[in-house]
Amino acid sequence: MIDINYFSRMYHQNPPTDIIRIEAQLGNPQAECKGFGICTLDEMEPDTWSNYRPYHIQRMKALLSWLENHLHMEFPVNGMLVPTRAHFFAKGVFLLESEAVLPAWLCEKWELAYLSIPSGTYACTLRNDAFEVNLPIAWQLKDMEMPMALKKAV
């Protein structure tokens, strides 16, 4: 497991507090979205999110927020197909086979220059009919110089 506190302390200033409704596509982007990881995150309007019906094993609705210095994701069971639950969440862990660099629209929304989740195996808990995952993050504010470790990754 990854040390969440290490990554979240890297550039901690004033994290955002809003909750964002998204459609997530799971799979490893380095393997043409096959396997395990986060391929895409697309923001959804509240009405669209409320009426969402999954149509593919890799696609599901989720809530995304910044909580206690980590990225918190909730995947409602009613927002995924039964095979999705069996494939991505059955073992009680959330697997990222490669680093997930989060999209520019999310960085813009949270006024960040960079936001990523390192590869790893993370605990996943079923609570209130949703799978919850807390993910460590590496991030940087727009007005800060990007550290060398992150410059090499970008």
Please tell me about this protein's structure.
The chain is an alpha+beta fold. The chain has one domain. Helix content is 20%, strand content 43%. It contains 5 helices and 10 strands. It has helices at residues 4-9, 46-50, 82-89, 104-109, 148-153; strands at 19-28, 34-43, 59-67, 70-76, 93-96, 100-101, 112-117, 120-127, 130-135, 138-141. A 7-stranded antiparallel sheet has the order 2-1-3-4-9-8-5. A hairpin with a 2-residue loop joins strand 3 and strand 4. The two termini are 24 Å apart. Residues 1-13 and 147-154 have low confidence and may be disordered.
In short, what is this structure?
This protein is of the alpha+beta class and 154 residues long.
Helix content: 10-25%
Which oligomerization state do the chains in this entry correspond to? Answer: single chain
Number of discrete helical segments: 5
Low-confidence stretches: 1-13, 147-154
Which structural category fits the helices and strands?
A: alpha+beta
- Relative strand content: 35-45%
Strand order of the largest sheet: 2-1-3-4-9-8-5
What overall geometry do the principal axes of the alpha carbons give? Answer: globular
User: What is the residue-averaged pLDDT?
Assistant: 83
Tell me about the biggest sheet?
7 strands, antiparallel
- Total domains, how many? 1
Distance between the termini: 24 Å
